[in-house]
C-alpha cells in the first residue's frame, strides 16, 4: 500500500481530496498534515478515523516546521506528496501579506527540502497544488495556457508563483519528480465562508447585504472541487516529472451573474423572495489590484491525462447551495468566531 501525504487536508479542497482518496483509491494510506489555521477545520474530516482506522492518520503540524516534517518522513514511508496547505484568500493577503510569504513560499521550500532529504535519489512524487492566479489578469479575450508567463497581481498569487518556481527548480536541479497543477476558482462543500459563493449563501440566509466588488463585471472561471481533485489524481498518477497542467472546466461567469444565479437558487430552495434578495445587492469599493478576468485552457490535461470535468455548473451550484443550507451549523460556528474580526476589518462595520 502506498503512503500519500496530503498537506492542508483540513481545508476546503484538501478535505474533499482526502475523502476521495480514501473512498476511491483503496491502495493508498493517507496521512494528513495540517496546521489548523483559521481555515483548517477538523469537522471537515469528521468520521474518517472511524471509517478508515488503518488507512488514515491526522498529524497537526505547520509546513514551515522542518523538524516536524523530518520526523513525519522518518515515521511514514511517504511515496507521494500532494501539497494543498496554503494561505488562500486574496483579500486577507492584501491586509496581511507576511503570513502568505511564510506559509506559501517558506512552507513549500521546507516541504520540498524534507522530501528531498527523505527521498534521496529520486523515489517519490511531489505535486504542488497551484492556481491560475499566478498568470495574472486577462483582458476580455484569450485563456491561460501552461506557456503563459507568470505575472501575479496580489501577495497571494505572488507567493504561489514563488512556490511554483521552487517546485520546478527542485526538478531541474535535483531531478526530483515534482509537478504542478494550476486550477481555476473552485466551489463545493466545506469551502470557508470568506470566498464568494459560500460567503453570499451565508449572507442571503442571515439577512445581510450582498457586497459585490466594483461593478461586479470581473470574470472568474469555475470548477467543482471534485473535478479539480480528479484532475490532481490524474496528474499524480500519469504525469511525467517537471510538468505543469492547467485544470479548468471552461465555465466563465461575471461575478454579478454568478451572484444572481445564487439568488435564484437560494430563493428556489428556501422559498425566500428573490426580489428581496436582489434588493440586498450592494456594489462596494473594488479590491485593490483586482484581476479583471481569469480563464483556463485545460487542453493539455485533456489531451495528455484524459481529464474530463463531470459536474455541470448548474447541477454543481444547486448541490452546493443545498449543502450549505443543510450544514448551517457548520458555517455558523465559523462565522461566529475569529472570522468576525476579519470581516470587520475587510468590510467595515
Ligand atoms: P483553505 O484556506 O480552505 O485551506 C487551507 C488549509 O491549509 C487549511 O486546512 C489550513 O489549516 C492549512 N494551512 C494553512 N497554513 C498552514 C501551515 N503553515 N501549515 C500547515 N497547514 C496550513 O484553502 P483551499 O481553498 O482548500 O485551497 C487549497 C490549495 O488549493 C491552496 O494551495 C490554494 O492556493 C489552491 N487553490 C485554491 C483554489 C480555490 O478556488 N480555493 C483554486 C486553485 C488553487
Ligand atoms: P474570491 O472567492 O475571493 O476568489 P478569488 O479572488 O481568488 O478569485 O472572489 C471571487 C470573485 O468575487 C473576485 O472577483 C472577487 C469577488 N468578490 C466580491 O465581489 N465580493 C466579495 O465579498 C468577495 C469575497 C469576492
List the helices and strands and how they pair.
Elements (H helix, E strand, L loop, with lengths): L1 E6 L4 H13 L3 E7 L13 H4 L4 E5 L5 H10 L2 E6 L6 H6 L2 H22 L5 E7 L23 H20 L2 E7 L1 E3 L8 H11 L3 E4 L5 E6 H14 L5 E4 L4 E3 H16 L3 H6 L1 E4 L14 H7 L7 H14 L1 H8 L3 H9 L2
Helix pairs in contact: 1-8, 3-5, 5-6, 7-9, 9-12
The structure holds nicotinamide-adenine-dinucleotide and thymidine-5'-diphosphate.
Question: Can you describe this structure?
Answer:
The protein is an alpha/beta fold and 349 residues long. Helices cover 46% and strands 18% of the residues. It has a domain of 237 residues: NAD(P)-binding Rossmann-like Domain (Rossmann fold), CATH 3.40.50. A seven-stranded parallel β-sheet has the order 3-2-1-4-5-6-10, with helices on both faces. Helix 2 links the parallel strand 2 and strand 3. Helix 3 runs parallel beside helix 5 and helix 7 crosses helix 9. The structure holds nicotinamide-adenine-dinucleotide and thymidine-5'-diphosphate. The site of thymidine-5'-diphosphate has 12 residues, from helix 7 and strand 8.
